[in-house]
Amino acid sequence: VLTWQGEISAVSQDAIRDTALAQRKTVVDEWDQEFDKGKVKKMKKMKQERRRDSNPFQKLQNKRNFWLMSHPAKMASLGHRL
After folding, report:
1. Measured between alpha carbons, how far is 78 from 57 in angstroms, rounded to an integer?
2. 64 inside domain
3. What distance in Å separates the CA atoms of residue 68 and residue 79, rounded to the nearest whole number?
4. Are residues 82 and 60 in contact, defined by beta-carbon separation less than 8 angstroms?
5. Assigned domain for 17 exists
């Protein structure tokens, strides 16, 4: 903005000076570069195959079933310990 005398006002001179200083002080770091890349769509990761006998509850039930079939009379007394 010019003054009545046609010169650049003090406010305009300060703004120009601040802009020049800001341009010199601006440092683009890795975080800014990564942020400027934008959003990246999330992709599902492939799950690794799990072994089928890894479920502890299934192991317990298998053990109980084994005792029930092989020792039917003892199952009543051993049921709370398995």
Report:
1. 17
2. no
3. 9
4. yes
5. yes
Q: Is residue 42 part of a domain?
A: no
Range of the domain at 12: 1-27
Convert 31-42 to b/e letters by CB count within 10 Å (16 or more is b).
Answer: eeeeeeeeeeee
In a domain, 78, yes or no: no
Phi, psi of 47 (to 5 degrees): -80, 140
Q: Spell out the per-residue pLDDT of the chain, length 82, in tens.
A: 677 888 888 999 999 998 888 776 666 677 777 887 877 788 888 776 666 657 889 899 999 888 888 876 665 555 555 5
Is the pTM higher than 0.85? no
The total of other beta-carbon atoms located within 10 Å of residue 13's CB is 11
Phi and psi based region of residue 54 (left: phi greater than 0; alpha: psi -120 to 50; beta: remaining): alpha
Number of domains in the chain: 1
